[in-house]
Amino acid sequence: MAKPKTEPTEAQKAYKTASEVHKKAKEANAKNDNEATKKALEKAVAHLKSVKVTKNRESFIRVGNGRIDAAIKALNGLGKLASPTSYEYGETDVATIKMLVGDAFKSAMAAFEMSKTKQAKGAAVKATFLQ
Question: Which of 1, 5, 103, 107 is the least buried, fewest Cβ under 10 Å from its Cβ?
Answer without folding.
Answer: 1
